[in-house]
What does this fold into?
Amino acid sequence: MVYYVSALLSPVESFLPLYHPFTDAFAVIFIGLLFAAELSYGTVFHYIFGFARTLVFIVYLIYVLNGGILNLSVPMDGRSMSVMVDVRIFLTMLILVLVLGLSKNVLQTIGFLSEKVTKDQDVSPLPSLEKPKG
It folds into this structure.
């Protein structure tokens, strides 16, 4: 699987050669957390692995996008052209969307645990408020 991810990213490697090993490590960690989350479906660990996967993705984006300032060196006709791009606003919006995913995982964990607690408790039905017939 990592081989296929590396093959897909090889055209971009000339622009970002420093991130190639980190991208492979990210792919292994992300796929591992995804696999662990699916294996632990129906337990609280499913939500914990989902939270960790989103957190790893946020850290990866911040690292790869260099905090929102990209410096690219584009080779053109034997010379190199340096391009600086400020994507901090885009990165901030993307991280805020991912933080919503984190909060969704936290709320799903709370919901899962509350359902588990209510199933484990012996809940007797409330007495009827209707008047007895007769």
